[in-house]
Design brief:
Largest sheet: 8 strands, mixed
CATH architecture of the largest domain: 2-Layer Sandwich
Number of helices: 12
Number of strands: 11
CATH class of the largest domain: Alpha Beta
Helix content: 40-55%
Number of domains: 2
Bound molecules: phenylalanine
CATH superfamily of the largest domain: Bira Bifunctional Protein, Domain 2
CATH topology of the largest domain: BirA Bifunctional Protein, domain 2
């Protein structure tokens, strides 16, 4: 190999060694091995040489080309590996590291109260039933003895679905009464917790809120069964031994007679109380004996089957039990509020702790 060839090889290998990134290496490759590259140009000169010259220069030039190609390939492999290692290091996650903060979430008071209610009523033999939040007119109103043009429809501030006048956001959980009676034969004992919607908003009303419905259908059911059930539930829910209930005549199209129930309350203990300690009354639920027309609309014979139903606001029950004041805060998603008022995920309502009968 001539000194020139050796010098050129040393120069190019030096450039390859110095290239510290794929771009830089590519530039060196083009300058040496590209069409106009130094090595390519040198190889082209072989054509104009005499056979003797070529027999010396040929192996030297080819040796140069092979050495440069090998150095380029080795350097490229090294750069690729370094890039991969850098990426792996940057994206590294140590799964064994302990989390530095405890989870921030907690169980919302509404969820907690729904679980407490399900627990209490499960102990009384009630199953949990559900229905759709987008409900049709028939289940939400007509089957519940609220025919079209009935003024009770106006009472509900209904949200209708655009372009689908027979569909509404359910205004109460009572349509689940209908769905249950249509789907199963009595005897029936269910509660139906869930979201309901009315176009209303202030400190004690939000456009979406939660209700829980209760329905019992059997033979020989009377208002006395309703009263015992509500009393048992209120005592268990508020964790008190005695509670005064006031039944006021009321009106719901789907119950007859209808009664609104007030719970006697003691300002001293801040809890529901027995008659001796009551100094104010809180309205907590609507109820009554299921109207014969509702039973008939579901295909059952009202002479054979009777029952009672009740409906109450879960948010309101949560406010009363846990001393919360502004209903709107329930739906703000404020983590500070939730930390203060929420419940530990391990704080499960049960009959033996908390929601006790
Ligand atoms: N659905 C009624 C309401 O939302 C409550 C209710 C339910 C009343 C069941 C009687 C029986 O106001």
């Amino acid at each position: 190999m001539s000194t020139d060839t050796a010098a050129l090889q040393a120069e190019i290998l030096g450039q390859i060694a110095a290239a510290d990134a794929p771009d830089a290496l590519e530039a060196v490759r083009v300058a040496a091995m590209g069409k106009q590259g130094q090595v390519t140009q040198l190889l082209k000169t072989l054509g104009g040489m005499s056979p003797e010259e070529r027999s010396v220069a040929g192996p030297a030039f080819n040796g140069l080309r092979e050495a440069v190609a090998a150095a380029l390939a080795a350097k490229k492999a090294a750069l690729d590996e370094a890039a991969l290692n850098a990426k792996l290091a940057a994206e590294r996650q140590d799964m064994t590291l302990p989390v530095s903060l405890p989870p921030a979430g907690s169980v919302h008071p509404v969820s907690q109260v729904m679980d407490e209610l399900a627990e209490i009523f499960a102990d009384l033999g009630f199953a949990v039933a559900t229905g759709p939040e987008i409900e049709d007119d028939w289940h939400n109103f007509t089957a519940l003895n609220i025919p079209e043009s009935h003024p009770a429809r106006a009472m509900h501030d209904t949200f209708y679905i655009d372009g689908q006048p027979h569909l509404v956001l359910r205004t109460h959980t009572s349509p689940v009464q209908i769905r249950t009676m249509m789907a199963q034969q009595p005897p029936i004992r269910i509660i139906a917790p869930g979201r309901v919607y009315r176009s209303d908003s202030d400190a004690t009303h939000t456009p979406m809120f939660h209700q829980i419905e209760g329905l019992v259908i059997d033979k020989g059911i009377t208002l006395a069964h309703l009263r015992w059930t509500l009393e048992t539930f209120i005592k268990a829910f508020f964790e008190v031994d005695d509670v005064a209930l006031r039944f006021r005549p009321s009106y719901f199209p789907f119950t007859e007679p209808s009664v609104e129930v007030d719970v006697g309350y003691s300002s001293k203990t801040g809890k529901p109380a027995g008659a001796a300690d009551v100094d104010k009354w809180l309205e907590v639920l609507g109820s009554g004996m299921v109207h014969p027309r509702v039973i008939a609309a579901c295909g059952l014979d009202p002479n054979e089957w009777q029952g009672f139903a009740f409906g109450t606001g879960v948010d309101r029950l949560a406010m009363l039990k846990y001393g919360l004041t502004d209903l709107r805060a329930f739906f703000d998603g404020d983590i500070g509020w939730l930390r203060h008022h929420g419940f530990s995920a391990f704080d499960l309502p049960s009959i033996s702790a908390g929601a006790a009968l």
